[in-house]
Amino acid sequence: MRNILIIGAGRSASSLIKYLLEKSTQENLHITIGDLSLELAQRKTNNHPNAKPIALDINNVEQRQSEIQKADIVISMLPAHMHIDVAKDCVKFKKNMVTASYISDAMQALDEEVKANSLVFMNEIGLDPGIDHMSAMKVIDEIRSKGGKMILFESFCGGLVAPESDTNLWNYKFTWAPRNVVLAGQGGAAKFIQEGKYKYIPYHKLFRRTEFLEIEGYGKFEGYANRDSLKYRSVYGLDDILTLYRGTIRRVGYSKAWNMFVQLGMTDDTYPMENSETMSYRDFINSFLPYSPTDSTEIKTRLQLGIEQDDIMWDKLLELDLFNPTKIVGLKNATPAQILEHILSQSWSLQPEDKDMIVMYHKFGYEINGEKKQIDSKMVCIGDDQTYTAMAKTVGLPVAMATIQILNGKIKTPGVQLPINKEVYLPIIKELEEFGVIFKETEMPYVGYNPDRLLGN
């Protein structure tokens, strides 16, 4: 049998493991699932005859290397910074490797050795990054094959709550790592290019510069800019493109409301707050407001944010129970961002019966025979339940499919790579459709930003 080692059995591994187990007899697979929690690994294997759950501590070098040596291919579903030790072992023992994470500098540094050993190290083959690369390159390659020249590429993705589970005023619940949501956009200005001009949005302005998107059957959404839209410009072969913008999707109104936290300073992760363990929710918000011998915390908040009592923004704050004097934070030496995450998790956690939703939207503008055209490509995927979420499906399935393709010799270009070649993306996009991950491509009239390019913008 062909041995697959999966390291990490967390939330994103559910659909991945299920897919491989269902294929195991037909594809002659034996799957070892290693996690720090043996119980979690056992739960995911569900006593399948072709699976073996093990307790695996990747810091135990001897155990890690022993398991990697037994495998034909290794899937690392660990946090991104933990892949590198696994990757170095895979080079040492000549094993192919698959991850859903961004290619780090340390991973890229292994490229020469990986190629020298004719190995495939497939990275960024999850959702975002992953399905975004594959669905984008498919259309870009098709445009080029017809002789078209790309002039605009915009790409948006968001993990949201499904309409039937959307039960709060923010139209949002945590479907992935809450910490990443709280820290979104920090660490430098958002950078992109529009109509040939570089644009920058500093963090304190980020959530007030949004684009609006319409998706048939699901209504209106908004997108705010990702930190670096230019990262994939050369990778996609778009060095001459006039507009390149990548963003995160939310329901309309979310960004304006989130901006209240940014302006108050509640998303800051750079310092611990005194007495955070005994602080009430009310104390927390009051910490960011000026002292007043007469005004209540509520009045000071409204004055600081410039909102009225009948403003929906005010209702959104009240819904989070932020002004409760008896609810205690209970976190030691916590930063504002950590406290905010804790408070939001009380309100925004998915309930057992809730479903999540992934939305992806690409816009492609191109020129062909002197005419400007546009293609919009949209995908909506709704989760089944709390185990087989849309997030687990869209992250895990491409990883699993790429693993089988590599094992079967269909993906053979060696090196540390992402899924932008036809040999990778064509079969995977086609197979994803069987699982409800379907892109609807529509030809649209081209809409640029500034038809008269002679004017400054």
TrEMBL record:
Residues 4-120 form the Saccharopine dehydrogenase NADP binding domain. The keyword Transmembrane does not apply. Residues 126-436 form the Saccharopine dehydrogenase-like C-terminal domain. Transmembrane segments: none annotated. Keywords: Oxidoreductase. It comes from the Bacteria. The keyword Oxidoreductase applies. InterPro entries: AASS, NAD(P)-bd_dom_sf, Sacchrp_dh-like_C, Sacchrp_dh_NADP-bd. This is Saccharopine dehydrogenase NADP-binding domain-containing protein. It comes from Flavobacterium macrobrachii. The lineage of its organism: Bacteria, Pseudomonadati, Bacteroidota, Flavobacteriia, Flavobacteriales.
